[in-house]
Amino acid sequence: MESIQQLFEQFFGLEWGIMLFTLVKNLAYIIAIAVPLLLGVAYLTFAERKIIAYMQIRVGPNRVTFFGIPWLRGWGQPIADAVKALMKEIVIPTGANKFLFILAPILTIMPALAAWAVVPFSAELVLADINAGLLYILAMTSMGIYGVIIAGWASNSKYAFLGAMRSAAQVVSYELAMGFALVCVLMMSQSLNLGDIVNGQQGGSMLNWYLIPLFPMFLVYFISGVAETNRAPFDVAEGESEIVAGFHVDYSGMAFTVFFLAEYANMILVATLTAIMFLGGWLPPLDIALFNMVPGFIWLLLKIAFLLFFFLWFRATFPRYRYDQIMRLGWKVFIPITLIWIVVLGLIMQLPESVRNDFPYNLWF
Amino acid sequence: MNFQDIIFYVFSTVLIVSALGVVTSRNPVYSALLLVLSFITCAGLWLLLEAEFLAITLVLVYVGAVMVLFLFVVMMLDINLAQLREGFWRWFPVGGLIALIIVAEITLIMSGSYFGLEEMPAPDPKPADYSNTKELGRVLYTEYVYAFELAAVLLLVAMVAAIALTLRHREDKKSLDVAKQVSVRKEDRLRIVSMAAEKKE
């Protein structure tokens, strides 16, 4: 690393060399995050099909394999799907606004990938260790809605537009509850830095994770996350029984696939953030030698996989929400719960230190 | 000219072009989207000034919430351009006057003794562990606490007023009580009748 930097400095001069080196280095890091993420997305679709298949007593994809290896049957499916999508024609409807029609999928995937910049994978493995990391995540996830709205409008189709409007109202409503739940997290950790939030959960065991003192907030955050990613049972934006396929009804080929990728990338993002905020990120569940030997990154991956399973489980279990019930859950249930919890947490923070330390298991601070 | 200057000029150019686009674009949806772009580039400029909290809050509040609702409304408008342009020259003097006043005000502020370039030198670079958020919170909740609370109350009043203005209680309205629907049980709806088998005629 040092020698490459020196090479840059010799070539471009001291000031420019450092700047360009930082640029190239960060680009390399971004690729190192984005490529495994997209592979993860591909295999999440495979996992979804397999898991839901087994839940419904089917087998799921079991044909496509690599080099004819029998025990890898089905594992080639996501690759085959991607190749199929690449080959397909992108049909642009006659009445559509061409520029915005193409722009929409890009705007959907951009924030889903950009939010990963501040996610800490282990104690020192983070691309941008910024102070306002939590705020950055909120800002990025709130931008994802633009792709959906623009796609719905640019398609110039009633079904697409209805889907876009449903999605916009839903996401804006659940963002509030999500934000308030995260306010509780930052009140506990007293920091907006994601690394500090994980470090604040350090202690003897998983009893120190924010999951326990903030359990209602964990539920609110995770369910809001499911709603925010437009996943079942909150997938009224697509609602195929009512509005065909919602905002992406007119998309085909790779343009559709980008929406698809963004949805799964957002699922992984929400699972990762839940793991970081409430399940102690890269920390092992128990502070014993055997668990400490496993690298933190593996623990984080295990927690993400655990939470992602819930997304798939929800989809196989629950029927779709009716739209007014979605709104009721967001505005009349989640937001009051989070507001009350913030006040309760604030009151507890005002208690004197000696009283706080008497709480069982030192759950609060 | 160093790297930061280049970033500054790129962002400024994008900001000015997109801001011009907001007012010149024919399509209101394009206008709204260009406004989003100018907010984001503005946030980039604030980041250069090391105001990361304000920059990200700008994106979060304006881009993430306000402009979404704006776009939402604009997309549902049925705009007739010919009708809109009808009174252009008639109202041009009023609009021009307002534009002149705004330009004069900006000039007064930018060249004044409080906000002029000499009064506001570039901020000193702060150490990496300096938390913008904490400093802002400290000032907001100590020095400016009354102004802050007043602003919050003002927003609340505006919100209540907006609801009060549009809320109408209608007697003939049919509405659902979702809580009742959700808490319904089998016994409330379903009656199982046991009856003897009937003979086929």
Mean pLDDT of chain A: 84
- Can you tell me the residue ranges of chain A where pLDDT is under 50 for at least 5 consecutive residues? none
Main interface: chain pair and counts: A-B, 29 and 27 residues
Describe the largest sheet of chain A. Answer: none
Our count of helices of chain A gives: 15
Average pLDDT score of chain B: 84
Structural class of chain A: mainly alpha
Q: What is the alpha-carbon Rg of chain B in Å?
A: 28 Å
Residue stretches of chain B low in confidence (pLDDT < 50, at least 5 long) are none
Shape of chain B: extended
| Total beta strands of chain B | 0
Helix content of chain B: 55-70%
Shape of chain A: globular
**Beta-strand percent range of chain B:** under 5%
Order of SSEs of chain B: HHHHHHHHH
State the helical fraction of chain A: 55-70%
The number of strands of chain A is: 0
Oligomer: heterodimer
Terminal Cα span of chain A: 40 Å
Brief digest:
Chain A contains 15 helices and no strands.
Walk me through this protein's architecture:
The complex is a heterodimer of chains A (365) and B (201). Chain A is mostly helical. Helices cover 67% and strands 0% of the residues of chain A. Chain A is built from 15 helices and no strands. In chain A, helix 2 packs across helix 13 (296-317) and helix 7 (158-189) packs antiparallel against helix 9. The two termini of chain A are 40 Å apart. In chain A, 41% of the residues are buried. The model of chain A has no long low-confidence stretch (mean pLDDT 84). Chain B has 201 residues and is an all-alpha fold. Helix content of chain B is 69%, strand content 0%. Chain B is built from nine helices and no strands. Chain B has helices at residues 3-24, 28-48, 52-76, 81-85, 88-111, 132-141, 145-166, 178-182, 186-189. In chain B, helix 1 runs antiparallel to helix 2 (28-48). The termini of chain B are far apart. The interface between A and B is medium-sized, with 29 and 27 residues.
